[in-house]
Design brief:
By secondary structure, the chain is mainly α. The protein has one domain: Sodium:dicarboxylate symporter (Proton glutamate symport protein, Orthogonal Bundle), CATH 1.10.3860. Helices cover 75% and strands 0% of the residues. Helix 11 (241-258) packs antiparallel against helix 12 (261-275). The protein is globular and about 70 Å long. The two termini are 22 Å apart. The structure holds aspartic acid. Aspartic acid binds next to helix 16 and helix 18.
Length: 402
């Protein structure tokens, strides 16, 4: 069978495996292939702002009913908080059982610099409303874009017949953006190939080995959460679990290689809609999820806090654990859907229980590898929510889009 005739997710998978081995063969020279991956990342980032803006306004325009909007928002936020709390608990359990920091020699670990400080949590809430929506669009501030789009959509509906033309324009524009997304996704196998070759080329065993237990703990906790938490939520809602994981794998592979929930958003929306999530629900739930729902990041924070506590022999009490669950939930909400953001927010969780934040530098050395998995789980959680909320609104229709 010809490569071009294969289904997209098969092509991406081939790109992933081929990229991995190419990276191992080329070693650090794989950096020369990276620009192909960068072009792909730029192309999907190019989609984010117009896609979120037009599809959310289009969603609001077709939704008209403000009570329904309120209901969908409540269900979404409830779902996100509930699954994030489960995620952080699973992360802590794996940290306790696997003891990733026990017996690790600090001197064997290289120093790595960390950049940036976490934003204050209250600032995240106060800056929700943009002072200047054009600036929010230009800067790609997703939360502000969401807020503005919701207001604009409500106003278009309130304007009645006078708002119809603009409303239709947004609907047409969002359809065009979906076509553009499909076009750029055709390039995904090559982008994924280049990015994974670069990662496997630069991370030699000597970097990975001392922290192997940490990496394995984060990966296992993430896989457990994806299979058991999302799997049971889907099964309870009578949504095919196997089919879900098959279809979402396209977005997962893109998340795994780009380490950006926001960057993966166009693919997540496409997969969720192919799975039967309604357009209105996906257009609201998924951009919001890519910005505030980070279950993989919460798991990672749980495991990493325990890793550092074990590394320096710091005993955690029950009240420490409760603090970790609360701050990790908030910190994961505050984490931006971009590469490496979770590492910066980890400092916030560490300081909430009085652990020294300098040790984050140790984790920074392998953060990309951890980010790959946590981002994959982050977008899987968003897609699960889109399906469950669609189903609860009687808008789940797996046979419509394909
Ligand atoms: N890279 C993650 C994401 O985009 C966030 C994180 O760093 O934890 O979902």
């Amino acid at each position: 069978m010809k490569f071009s005739k294969l289904e997209l997710w098969h092509k991406i998978f081939i790109g992933l495996v081929a990229g991995f081995f190419t990276g191992i063969l080329l070693g650090e020279k794989a950096v020369y292939i990276k620009p192909i991956g960068d072009v792909f990342i730029n192309a999907i980032r190019m989609l984010i702002v117009p896609l979120v803006f037009t599809s959310l306004v289009a969603g609001m325009v077709s939704l008209k009913d403000s009570k329904k909007m309120g209901r969908i928002s409540l269900k979404t936020i409830g779902f996100y908080l509930f699954t994030t709390m489960i995620a952080i608990t699973i992360g802590l359990l794996f940290g306790i059982i696997m003891q990733p920091g026990a017996g690790v020699e600090i001197s064997s670990l290289g120093e790595a610099a960390i950049a940036g400080t976490p934003p204050e949590l209250v600032h995240i809430f106060t800056s929700l409303i943009p002072q200047n929506p054009i600036a929010a669009l230009a800067e790609g501030n997703i939360l502000q874009i969401i807020a503005f789009s919701i207001f604009l959509g409500i106003a278009i509906n309130m304007a009645g017949s006078k708002g119809e033309k603009i409303g239709d324009m947004f609907i047409d524009f969002s359809n065009i953006m979906f076509k553009l997304t499909a076009l750029i996704m055709e390039f995904a196998p090559y982008g994924v190939f280049a990015l994974i070759a670069w990662v496997s080329g630069i991370y030699g065993l000597d970097v990975l080995l001392p922290l192997l237990k940490l990496i394995v703990a984060v990966y296992l906790a993430c896989i457990t959460h994806a299979i058991f938490t999302y799997g049971s939520i889907l099964a309870i809602n009578k949504i095919g679990v196997v089919n879900f994981f098959k279809e979402i794998s396209t977005a997962q592979m893109i998340a795994f290689t780009t380490t950006s929930s926001a960057g993966t958003l166009p693919a997540t929306i496409t997969c969720a809609r192919n799975l039967g999530a309604s357009k209105t629900v996906s257009n609201f739930v998924l951009p919001l999820g890519a910005t505030i729902n980070m279950d993989g990041t919460a798991i990672y924070q749980g495991v990493c806090v325990l890793f550092i506590a074990q590394l320096i022999g710091f005993d955690l009490s029950m009240s420490h654990y409760i603090t970790i669950i609360l701050t990790s939930t908030l910190a994961s909400i505050g984490t931006a859907g971009v590469p490496g953001a979770g590492l910066i927010m980890l400092t916030l969780v560490l300081s909430s229980v009085g652990l020294p934040i300098e040790y984050v530098a140790i984790i920074a050395g392998v953060d990309r590898i951890l980010d790959m998995m946590r981002t994959t789980v982050n977008i899987t959680g968003d897609a699960t929510c889109a399906l469950v909320v669609s189903k609860s609104e009687n808008e789940f229709n797996p046979s419509v889009v394909k």
